[in-house]
TrEMBL record:
It is found in: Cell membrane. It is a multi-pass membrane protein. InterPro entries: CbiM/NikMN, PDGLE_dom. The keyword Cell membrane applies. This is Energy-coupling factor ABC transporter permease. GO terms for biological process: transition metal ion transport.
Amino acid sequence: MHVPDGFIDAPTSAVTGVVAAGAIAVSLRGARRELDERTAPLAGLVAAFIFAVQMLNFPVAAGTSGHLLGGALAAILVGPYTGVLCVSVVLLMQGILFADGGLTALGVNITDMAIVTTVVAYALFRGLVKVLPRTRRSVTVASFVAALVSVPAAALAFTLLYWIGGTTDVSIGKVATAMVGVHLLIGIGEAAITALTVGAVIAVRPDLVYGARGLTQRLKLRVNGELVDAPQAEPAAAPAARSHRKVWITGLVTSLVLAGFVSFYASADPDGLEKVAADKGIDKKTEEHAAADSPLADYGVEDITDARLSGGLAGVIGVGVTVVAGSAVFWAVRRRHSDDTSPTNTNTTV
């Protein structure tokens, strides 16, 4: 659902840019509370994983494909504020390096794909886990539903923005119907990917899933015929650290394989927005991307003629750049939080 330059007029794009900048500023502050020794190292990896999976367009209807948006996945794994930052990092890398999503439309894309999806998904997710049984399976089910709803919500948000500042005169009702219809189908794929990923992490390290915190049930022991809470053992630091590294390495290798190899087999059909834009005439005033001459434009490496090799290298480079950029941002936020809460920065009165 990457919006190119020319779909939305300049005033609306400018307003969404301000909204996006404000949301990122709020998210930077909120992420300080979410990021800790568990989530900070994983946040950059989550961004890289979203980048990789977004390269895997899957068919949803005749001549139409879809791909992960990632807001729900990021919010549930590392928190809603950090989730907004994760998707924003991905969109920035895609726009600058790969000419995917217009630069003047960056505010539109962040508002739609990072803010709307994350807010809608996490609000629904939290509501569901409060009423469902306190089990890991409930977290997976809530992840599926939240991700499913977040995609048509983003489609509605785009339709609203197009109604306000679209550059072509088209029936907004027909645009809304087409956008929501196709993105309901895409939402099923989003939900499946999100639930499978969250479920896989929960199975290995449930403490690393932000949305699953506080849901662990205490072990019960029968003492003199009565059930009592078993004492909680202190976790061993060294094994946890090794397990943490194992999760990180496994996630990075998976991202590299998806972007560098599996992406070659992704659907070549236009995604939901591209298909609707072509059918309804939204794309009549599409502008050439400012980074169209990038050596990585369109997810290929310049001067490499072999399509498989070119796309694979571009994917690997994208994952590498995204994990480095994301990790730098999240470590800086975490470091700032540690500095703000250190004893030397605490004001005391005598």
